[in-house]
What does this fold into?
Amino acid sequence: MEPDYSRQIALKDVGAAGQSLLERSRVLVVGAGGLGSPVLQYLAGAGVGSLTVIDHDTLDPSNLHRQPLYALEDSGRPKAALAAAALAKMNPRVRVEVRAERFDTANALALVAAHDLVVECSDNFRTKFLVNDAAVLAARPVVFASVYQYEGQLQVYKPDREHACLRCLWPDATADGVVGNCAEAGVLGPVPGALGAMQAVLALETLLDIGTPLRGEVLLVDFRDFSTLKLRAPRHHACDAPRCCRVRAIVPEGPDLEVTLDSLDEAVARGWTIVDVRNAEEFVARPAAGRHFPVAELLAGEAPLAREVEYLLVCATGQRSLAAARALRRRGYAVRSLAGGLGRVDRDR
Ligand SMILES: [Zn+2]
It folds into this structure.
């Protein structure tokens, strides 16, 4: 059976020419989670010819309330591969490239440059700003979204004079661990689902050049009262299109910043001191071996660490510990972060 795009071809702004354009388009989706699931489904359904999905994570049962692309029985398997398998069933004509790895300083620029559009669906600021910088350097459009509890935010970057990049609006990247992500702050599943569907609309309109969605504006949506607010978000005045003057280069980071372990015993065997950076409630609910300093305490003022000791930072999912490890390395401490967090070593036990 062949896919049938007649209901979107019927739109006069799409037509056969628009459909053919979609089939020739290459879209990079960074993150296959709560935002990425609907983005991937709608873009595959629309017949976007080539999709690349990059996600380093494996499926956890706690993901499913906001990621209905997946099945409980697939828990523990890599999400990028699971997403590709689901999309192949839905539309076998779409080519899906699987990258079961982290979007990082080593692959960012080449990946972004190899696509016509990027949809940014990660859950951390570090990745969002890295996507931003790669897109500015490679002159590629990006559809951004972020979610916090009942609220969401949408922004479109294009390499022109009207569309601001993230650094036009926030010159200094917000540090991860300052604002909670879904694992830590909690979220209603359909909230990222709705924002992801809106990202898919923006992605298709950008590819097809329909309308002027979010030109120089950021859209805020609050699902507690269903209010929306459009904020003026102009390009930084000193920027030349397509380059933002605040984006210079992508600075590579050390390859051993994150380590994957089967158990915490391995860390002890390597002589590393374990530091748990979760908050006090998490620590009490599920104590882990090692010392305990919540991330805010660890990063405030003089770190309570010794210069000559090697540390392994751990948290629930590996995100706060990674952000803390980055910050502490810049201050000269010998720290690394447990990839995937305590959830992963617990599960494998
Ligand atoms: Zn900018």
